[in-house]
Here is the input.
Amino acid sequence: MDQKLVWESLKRDAAAMFSQEGVKKKLLAGRRLKIKFGADPSRPDLHLGHTVPLRKLKLLQDSGHEIIFVIGDFTGMIGDPSGKSKTRPPLTFEQTRKNGETYFRQAAKVLDPNKATIVYNSKWLSEMSFGDVLHLCGQYTVARVLERDDFAARMRENRAIGMHELLYPLMQGYDSVALHCDIEVGGTDQTFNLLVGRELQRSYGQSPQEVITFPLLPGLDGVEKMSKSLDNYIGIDEPADTMFEKCMKVPDALLQDYFRLTTDIGDNEFLPLMAADIRAAHMLYAMTITGMYHDQEMAEQAMVRYLSVAAGAAPDAVPEVTLPSGLLPLTKALVLAGLAASLSEARRLIAQGGIAVDGKIITDHAHEIKGDAPVLLRRGKARFARIMFHCPHTPI
Amino acid sequence: MDQKLVWESLKRDAAAMFSQEGVKKKLLAGRRLKIKFGADPSRPDLHLGHTVPLRKLKLLQDSGHEIIFVIGDFTGMIGDPSGKSKTRPPLTFEQTRKNGETYFRQAAKVLDPNKATIVYNSKWLSEMSFGDVLHLCGQYTVARVLERDDFAARMRENRAIGMHELLYPLMQGYDSVALHCDIEVGGTDQTFNLLVGRELQRSYGQSPQEVITFPLLPGLDGVEKMSKSLDNYIGIDEPADTMFEKCMKVPDALLQDYFRLTTDIGDNEFLPLMAADIRAAHMLYAMTITGMYHDQEMAEQAMVRYLSVAAGAAPDAVPEVTLPSGLLPLTKALVLAGLAASLSEARRLIAQGGIAVDGKIITDHAHEIKGDAPVLLRRGKARFARIMFHCPHTPI
Here is the structure.
């Protein structure tokens, strides 16, 4: 692929580059570049949020560059030395390797694994002596490390920061020194750490890496960034049905971002569709994503299942009405359940095909419900009621 | 020596103990204790300020405890990794060993070197891996390290603190862990670092050391603490004459502190003397100190020389009067130099033995000055004037 096209694509979608001029120059120089991407080994399950930078890495890979996945196993194995953090339990060597492989296997759904390298930063960090650490630390002032947003906020709010935590950005940055990276790619939340790498390379006499950050994908809740721990994610390793269904739940207001950041579909295709039929646009998105991470056939099956469930399924919170057991005319049941105002309206609705019992449309207005097991009534697309029956031998 | 007496002495002279109860308990338990004292290898010349804690260590040593001198060669060898500090040039391995020996040789003027140990902290610190460092750092929060006075001041004033500097207190503290110290002794300016050691031992599952701090000896300027770099010090390795002379310059207001902190002379001896004759008290102090760090005979010789110089010597800043060369009556010279208001006063002063020429008392009021070389006139103890003569062949 032409480096100029790669450059155009990065320029269009990156949140920021440090520096734009530097990225352009390096790409157009035509040299095979070492491109770093940091991976958290404690969270090996990738979701669509991860694919935002991964898709750009794919582009860079296709145009001939070397992609290096850095698995931050070193700190992962140490965990939180203060023992205070429950979110950072130490991983064993085996776990970090297993998680690294899981990560890489999933990333292979976006990138060509044969043209990417996976490295573990314990390789060089565990070899460093106290003297090396002091030398590394000597390149940075306390004030500059404390500028990192989360540190600054914790300092302001008098929340504890462990001394070891202050070293993490330096370690991540040192990875770039150890690897002689040309470019590092990450989410905007990693900007600080990525720039530390750039500056440390300069301190260690290397040509500083360029930094490219990409926007964070908002989660399905439309509030937080996508994250497994917040359960607002679409995992790229999830079953096709789940994936399809979750894609259908992307908030309308975010669908445009999702299209742009996670698919190859152009604005000229999805924008008119969204304007004309937002549900159809969701279907297109769900089909596309499920097709990407499974295949087209599975995507279609997932759609069929989704539509049949959507037609028959009821939301969890359905009003319930409990009636005496025994045969019950459907018309009466509809009135008792509040889905029809009168028996005549009930009859009309049934005749129009607007009523389903347990997901099956009933057009016979003389239909009777057996009254021995709960049934789900639906009027139109969205109004549900569940009818329960007393056991005839049980006093109410 | 009875541990109870040692305890009494420490309690009387310590600036603070953490905790008093702990020190008492450990001493009275009768066990041989490991007592740590940190030494800065970049400043191997000891002065009287150093002897304040050293003299207490001697007491502890005499009563059976093990004194461990920790030479902080590790950071010394690393120097300032940022390369920004001129005050902390890196030392070579040979320099740290040489300085350590110099330090120890001088300390041997106070302590018994055969009953003390000298250790270099590079022994354990250089063996530590990055993982060990992170574990160490994990025991402390950033906020607590930044509480150290000098860090706090630099943060307040937006003066840079290198990330590596933040690790120094932890390294010093870790020395106590590596050595399993029972007690650490130091100046009040070391309180923070000493307490870090105490807390780190606790974190590493050891019984925390007790900390005893001693007051800092003020320097000869009466303003700053005694320090070689401020040139307000009395070095314990200085020649007897210099030592004696410097002791005579201790500001009157500080002489009491000097007696208490650096000699064994009791209040009941020096206090009445100071009240009766401050100069005699200074002489006693100078004799005592010079006797301690040289010997009694050399101290006496130094005193004799001091007194003869004092009798004849003039301070550097003496008013000068330049007169035509040639024989000059002393009386006239005194008037011209401003030391007498009139010739008759000059005669009376000479007759009273209140006038010296070049340090020699002249009682002959007809005395004449040759007028071929500068002479120093003295009236009483403190008023001086120097008479210079024009060369007869040189035009003025």
About this structure: Chain B has a mean pLDDT of 88. Residues 91 and 106 of chain B are 20 Å apart (CA to CA). The two ends of chain B are 74 Å apart (CA to CA). Residues 163-179 of chain B form the longest helix (17 residues).
